Amino acid sequence: MAVTSADDAASSPRMINAGSAATRGAFAASEWGGFFITHDPPRPQAWHTYILLPSADLPLLVFHFAQPPLQRSEEWMRERVEELKGRVRTMFSDGSVAEAVTLMDTLERLGVDGHFREEIDSAISRIVHPDESAGFDDLHVVATRSRLLRQHGIWVSTDALDNFRDGMGNFKASLSSDPRALLSLYNAAHMAVPGDGPALDDVINFTRHQLETIVAKGELRSPLAEQVARALDHPLPRFTRLLETMYYVGEYAQEETHDNTLLELARLNSHLMRSLHLRELKALSLWWRDLYDTVNLPYTRDRMVEVYFWSCGMIPEEEHSRARLMFAKTFGLVTFLDDTYDVHATLEECRSFTKAMQRWDDSAVSILPEYLRMLYIKTLSTFKDFENMLKPHEKYRMSYAKKVYQLQAEYYMQEAQWSNDKHQPTFKEHEELSVMSSGLPMLNLVALMGYGAIVTKKVFEWTCAVPDVVRAGAQIGRFLNDISSYKLGEEGRG
């Protein structure tokens, strides 16, 4: 639920009037319908880009799905993947630091780095403390190394960039003829952290100007042209890895220096992940259709496909299917909650539902208005299903998940109270509440509930305390959402 700050509260159209239902939601119906319930993907004889659209004029989601030739079985593909992984592992033992940087970057962008965690950890040690400097006079290598290390939580100085500046401290003019290096530097500069000062801001401004100039001249060829255009819109560190893999698998095949082993592995991995995603999406679509019809709250959003796409971006690894499903189902449930508090329920109905959520007991359904009873029942039963999905030694996790979900209802209640009272919060008040009501801290914890042994009780305690990294992620999500909502509102008024 988006609340308003003191600056714009007076113009907010979303005020809940106690004693009467608020304006009904005006959300468009899902364009997907039962598409993924009945969808049977085609099985062509060649690799290709496979696009799933609910209608010809609605490019909501685009998936890159590589189909292998000869309609191989999944068993054959998995055996082939293991064979190819063995070949790739030998690549880590040979070559220079520059080659290790390139290999690591390629694996991550192809979305297959999860198969080589130990090898990548060893490569990082080599990259952090290189025993030779070969390749470090190459701006592309220097910039890519910096980005990769920072992505893995290792701070590295930007001093190495001084080698590419002239006596006046400006970047050398010769760099303007190297778009690949400029792109790598542009992406690396977006890994800036507090303490870097204005230096990396200057790098972003310089490289962006140079890249835009090159684009305007039409001098770039595919696939670099597409990569530059994409980065200017969304720099690589801020782009969803799932989408980057979708694009890069096809682009890598066009690169003259591509490795056939890596390309085949990436294509097979894309196909296997596609098969998993379609199975999960079918199961979720069936679950959601039953839930949405049973709960019968037509004023709420019907967006399970989009929710699942988000969950894949948050939890991309194949082995974390359970976490992905828990995340998506909870996201779907909290959408009902959000839309009910935000655009439909009276203040008293909000209070009743909040009270019932704190009781977390079937008997509390009696205090709810008739139209909200099934939502409450289904919420409790879904969390019971989650508990049944957990192993005996994992069931302690449910208490954390229930607690953060109960808190979510309290955050929505506070926003409803502010709207009803026409309270104009300060920006600080608005930020404190809306960051938590964004649902991202809650969803982070629910996702952890589905992970394996790597997540301990200590991790849940840490996450429940909403550490800075969780809060920062929620702030970004909330502010981007508010900016988007504002722009949509402006367009609607225009």
TrEMBL record:
Q: Which processes are annotated in GO (biological process)?
A: diterpenoid biosynthetic process
Q: Name one GO molecular function term.
A: terpene synthase activity
Cofactor(s) needed, names only, are:
Mg(2+)
Q: Name one Pfam family in it.
A: Terpene_synth_C
- What UniProt keywords apply to this chain's record, in alphabetical order? Metal-binding
> Which residue ranges does UniProt annotate as crossing the membrane?
none
The record places domain Terpene synthase metal-binding at: 290-492
Q: Which InterPro entries match?
A: Isoprenoid_synthase_dom_sf, Terpene_cyclase_plant_C1, Terpene_synth_N, Terpene_synth_N_sf, Terpene_synthase-like, Terpene_synthase_metal-bd, Terpenoid_cyclase/PrenylTrfase
Q: Looking at the keywords, is 4Fe-4S present? A: no
Which domain of life does this protein belong to? Eukaryota
Domain Terpene synthase N-terminal span(s) in chain numbering: 72-232
Q: What is this protein called?
A: Terpene synthase
Q: What is the lineage of its organism?
A: Eukaryota, Viridiplantae, Streptophyta, Embryophyta, Tracheophyta
